[in-house]
Fold these 2 entries.
Entry 1:
Amino acid sequence: MVQPQEDDISVEASSLPPVPIQEISEDRTLTETVLFPTPKLFLKISKPEIRQSLRALTYESVFAAVLYSIIGGALLSNFLLELGAGPVEIGLLAAIPQMVNLLQPLGAYLVNRSTSFRQYFMCIFIPSRLLWLILLPAIWLVTSSRITGYQVVQLTLAILLVANIIEAFGRAPWLGWSAVLVPQRLRGRYFGFRNSILGLTNLVGVPMLGLAVSAWPGGTLQGYGAVLVVGIILGIISVGCQFWMTDINPQILKVGDLDTSHPQPQGIDFSLFKDANFLKFVLYLSIWCFAVNVSAPFFNLYLLPGYRY
């Protein structure tokens, strides 16, 4: 776990409204950072709390990565292909998570009216992950020939749609909470370490999960159901890791923005569209993402053995 080496740590949130910060001047072993948005409302974050929050954030990401590798990517594609899914269903599988991202601004609006990041994310991630439990009895019914495979395909896509709609409300606020907890001077080092851990988790975890599915005695469908149970359990453990992350009241950040002496722009600032370099970058990124997302989802369609011509 990355531990900060600096004597003083300032909690900053560059992606959120600026917050007045005042450091305690007394000589202490661990310097504390106090946020003073108003005389009556303040939040104290010490070095041990920051270290514990970063450690919990890393564990949370690792457990969540295992779940998302099961309910997305090659494992879910192989499950749908075994049930008889075709190009349309595989296309929907790839399109649904991208389309629901349009709801992220609404999530940022809602979190600004909550009083706790932790409680907000509990209401987001617990229902969205428990929703996948509905798929377990469906797997049992299709393996016992009581329902058709295509019905399970439709149910899976419906669960995917609802779960992603719920999680879309938490994706932008999650970055906001992370930005507050990770000091600005440590962000490059911490997120580089965290991304390396996540890459290693996917590199080791996905092949092992795929092997478990293919080697399951009851067949690949039951094997996917078994690893799905493991994934849901790890997903709930991931949510539980948030109890070790320092909770922040979004209203503190909101009040801090109102108390700042610098006038804040009203509405949406469209001046960035006058920057020619920014427009070129957006155009390049749009073409790149369009090309990748048009072709990449269908690789699994032809590479996985479940596809039937």
Entry 2:
Amino acid sequence: MTTARTPGHGPLSGVRVVELAGIGPGPFAAMLLADLGADVVRVDRPGGPGLGIDPAYDVTNRNKRSVVVDLKSPDGREQVLDLADRADILLEGYRPGVAERLGVGPQPCHARNPRLVYGRMTGWGQDGPLAQHAGHDIAYIAPTGTLGMIGRPQEAPPAPANLLGDYAGGSLYLVVGVLAALHHARATGTGQVVDAAIVDGTAHLTTMIHGMLAAGGWQDRRGANLLDGGCPYYGTYETADGRYMAVGALEPQFYAEFLGLLGVDDRADARKDVTRWDELREEIAARFKARTRDEWTAVFDGSDACVAPVLSLREAPHHPHLAARGTFTDHGGITQPAPAPRFSATPTSVRTGPARPGADTADVARDWALPGLFPSSRNPQ
């Protein structure tokens, strides 16, 4: 059966998004929408963000276009409102009240475009006692109980990069929220505000764990549970060359295959005997230390033992499975994750590299029917 493909660059082709430039989860959320085919116009500020990398390497700005607007200038507010008037979605990541002070908050935007979905990305949310306070990923995930679940019981919880809070609890919830609100807006003609807070999203990620906690199936401490490293057949082990293997052999059949390939078949009955877990962990650790990571990878290759090598960022694109699927792609000399997920009828791709601040002003003015809106585009070519 051949699936018919629609024109465009993804399922969101035709959706217009305005991104008020920021750092962290907001740009990543806008990138995801752009990867899915939306026409994302990033409104950069003069001089660029206060924290960030060289724009040429900031792949979270791929598939976007950029204009530069000084929101503190007399014309800046009107320029953004003109964009909002023609957009389906607007994303901003300021502290609560900042967009209002700049004159581009939900009220003036909705006065111009009642169908607009106005997405707000913050750490603490739009209200609450900490709403006005600064913070970063690690400070947001700490009060939710999520950070306290990670790591060895005798050690401090590690910093899990900014993946758990900024992107999982923040960006992805913002994207789900604005797409749900867009569906509602198209059905009713009424836009709304989406308040995406990293604390809310990260807490929501622990829903299953809270159920297990209430049922008595999860201990409220690190390294004592099935999925947090407390279980000897769900965790990581060092190999002879100082690298690591990851083990996730939870089900009985996978556990049995894991023990057989590891060479410790006599430990089958220790699976449910928590009193023997420390002993089992020591034996598994000793076995893994006997060979290198690549040797163990070869041993478990093609099995259902649920064992995989722990790879570095530079190694990951060369993993045979990821390479075969094209999980990573090269664009403009930069190796980066390809858009996800995948669509049979509306395929996605990395169409353009990182948007350079202001480089697309003339094109946006033309395509969004805003001639002369920006000084540099009064005579777009």
